[in-house]
Design brief:
The complex is a heterodimer of chains A (95) and B (470). In chain A, 35% of the residues lie in helices and 9% in strands. With 95 residues, chain A is of the alpha+beta class. In chain A, strands 2-3 form a two-stranded antiparallel sheet. In chain A, helix 1 crosses helix 2. Chain B has three domains: 279 residues, no CATH class; 111 residues, no CATH class; 60 residues, Arc Repressor Mutant, subunit A (Orthogonal Bundle). Chain B is 38% helix and 18% strand. In chain B, the strands form four sheets. In chain B, strands 6-7-10-1-11-12-13-14 form an eight-stranded mixed β-sheet. In chain B, strands 5-4-15 form a three-stranded antiparallel β-sheet, with no helix packed on it. Classes of the chains: A alpha+beta (95), B alpha+beta (470). Strand 3 of chain A pairs antiparallel with strand 9 of chain B.
Chain lengths: 95, 470
């Protein structure tokens, strides 16, 4: 599979990254290498193998529907954000 | 050429669990400060592990069964990626490949069946408020549990779209999985509409109207969109596949800028959440908790309550459950009282939360049947049964205390009638009646009612009067 510059630009766009030309070049090569490495798996015949969605083989890990007081309160969490206003997270205008 | 509209609807239902879908914080943010119902999981801080709320799974079973759906023994979660400030994770946890609820159908009051393609569990997004040059993010709603219900394109008019949404709302309210508060966005509808020439085997190009939050908006928006697309097609042009917004104020749909390049959500299995596997015993045990549904009540009461009235009453599950507790012979008179007193005066919201005991309602209906109460008095006693000060005392006691028991004792009534007939001011009316002036009987009955302080039974009074004046 060939990773083109447009693919990197598209992926960066989806994640809202701005990349320099040099970074786009490097990332194209990196991603190409990663995919090539993973592609070794294509040699195996997996026709009769169920896809693995979860490696721990656990099922039904549910919790009770009860409110638990959080150690991290609103103020503590808001200090992690870049900017806040009126107890909300302030972000550049979207939409 | 005649065009046939085809409509499919996606509906998001917010579940009324105590906590969120993946974190142990308060799920009910009504009237609470922004960002006060959040945890590090909702903030998607590195290393935070989502943990599935078991009640949300049980609610999904109830919701599914309310729509006659298969419940899938095996289901799991996926990540749906998109970059937007309403979702700190950068993805929504949803069930794309293996949803918990399979195929089923919703039967409308008209008898038409709308098939359900599937329904799945997912987390809601946060709330954005937009200002001139910035936006504010409130994460209280992040990962409120949602069930997204996807219908098949079985709907063919705006009215039917309305009826489907309303029936869905009722089903979810009866199942007890949502607060059903549309004003606060507890249920939101996306309406997909396309038009095809009559007889055509293929569907036309569809548009999607996003985020409608009332049945009326669904109907109006679908109506508008059908008319708009008809015009486009009749002009020989093509309908463009696009996402639309609806404005209640202008009564128009308009193209929306989409959040993300279409269909590039890069779904992948959610590695943090082990899959759900349900035994048939577990599914049956949970399904058994479903109370009677609107269609059960339609079957039970269609001979007792007029269809139009029944459809109004069906909006109130608690009221229907109460009617079902009452002796069937009294259901008609009690349902009439509910309709004429509570629903007519729009007291429903405050009053219907705490209904009188079935035995009190039966006692009232019994007095009514024996004509011990006038219709006005019956309404008054009925309202008192909701009064925290009075309720629990019983309808009979309340009626006595208020002096509302109607006088049916013929001996006692005759005495009052005689007294009235002896009064000089009634002489002229008596003469007029004897001379054939039928309508003065009303005046005389009124005089007797006054003398009895409103307790006399008017039809009994009239009978006695007619006998005496014959």
């Amino acid at each position: 599979m060939d990773i083109k510059r447009e693919d990197i630009v598209h992926l960066a766009d989806l994640s809202n990254f701005s990349l320099s030309d040099a970074e786009i070049g490097n990332l194209s090569k990196n991603l190409q290498d990663i995919i090539k490495y993973i592609s070794q798996l294509d040699e195996l015949n997996t026709d009769s193998v169920e896809p693995t969605y979860q490696v721990f083989e656990m099922e039904n890990v549910w919790r009770d529907d009860e409110i638990v007081e959080q150690e991290a309160n609103r103020e503590a969490l808001l200090t992690l954000t870049k900017e806040e206003k009126d107890n909300q997270i302030k972000v550049p205008k979207v939409l | 050429m005649r065009y046939i509209p085809t409509i499919g609807i996606e509906c998001h239902v917010q579940l009324c669990t105590k906590t969120k879908l993946f974190s142990e914080v308060d799920n009910d943010a009504r009237g609470k400060e922004p960002n006060s119902c959040v945890s590090p999981v909702d903030y998607a801080l590195p290393g935070m592990l989502p943990r599935l709320n078991g009640t949300a799974v049980k609610f999904a079973i109830l919701a599914g069964r309310a729509m006659n759906c298969e419940i899938n023994a095996y289901s799991r979660f996926d990540r749906k990626h998109y970059f937007y400030p309403d979702s700190p994770k950068g993805y929504q946890i949803t069930q794309f490949y293996q949803p918990i609820i399979g195929a089923g159908y919703v039967e409308l009051p008209s008898g038409n069946k709308i098939r359900i393609e599937h329904a799945h569990l997912e987390g809601d997004a946060g709330k954005l408020t937009h200002f001139d040059n910035y936006s504010l993010v409130d994460l209280n709603r992040v990962d409120t549990p949602l069930i997204e219900i996807v219908s098949m394109p079985d709907i063919h008019s705006a009215k039917e779209a309305h009826d489907y949404c309303k029936e869905l709302w009722r089903l979810m309210c009866y199942a007890g999985v949502t607060n059903g508060d549309l004003y606060n966005g507890n249920m939101r509808f996306d309406v997909n509409t396309s038009l095809a020439p009559e007889g055509s085997k293929t569907l036309g190009t569809r548009t999607e109207i996003k985020n409608l939050n009332s049945f009326r908006s669904v109907e109006r928006a679908a109506e508008y969109e059908i008319a708009r697309q008809t015009k486009v097609l009749e002009a020989g042009e093509k309908v463009i596949q696009q996402t639309l917004g609806w404005s209640d104020a202008t009564g128009k749909t308009s193209p929306q800028r989409s959040k993300e390049v279409a269909a590039d959500y890069r779904y992948m299995p959610e590695p943090d959440l082990p899959p759900i596997r349900l035994s048939s015993e577990f599914i049956e045990a949970e399904s058994a908790k479903l109370p009677l549904m609107p269609n059960n009540y339609r079957a039970l009461f269609h001979e007792i309550i007029k269809p139009d009235t029944l459809e109004v009453l069906l909006d109130y599950p608690e009221l229907m459950h109460k009617l079902n507790e009452i002796n069937k012979e009294y259901v008609k008179s009690i349902s009439n009282l509910f309709t004429s007193v509570l629903l007519a005066e729009e007291k429903s919201a405050e009053y219907l939360n705490d209904l009188p005991a079935a035995k009190d309602l039966e006692e009232l209906a019994e007095m009514n049947a024996k004509k011990e109460l006038s219709s006005t008095a019956a309404k008054e006693v009925f309202l008192r049964l909701f009064d925290p000060q009075m309720k629990g005392r019983g309808a009979k006691t309340i009626a006595k205390e208020l002096g509302l028991i109607q006088e049916n004792d013929l001996g006692a009534l005759e005495e009052i009638v005689d007294a009235v007939l002896a009064k000089p001011e009634t002489q002229k009316a008596q003469d007029d009646f004897r001379n054939g002036e039928e309508k003065v009987i009303g005046f005389l009955v009124g005089q007797v009612m006054k003398e009895s302080h409103g307790k006399a039974n008017p039809s009994a009074v009239q009978e006695i009067l007619r006998k005496k004046l014959a």
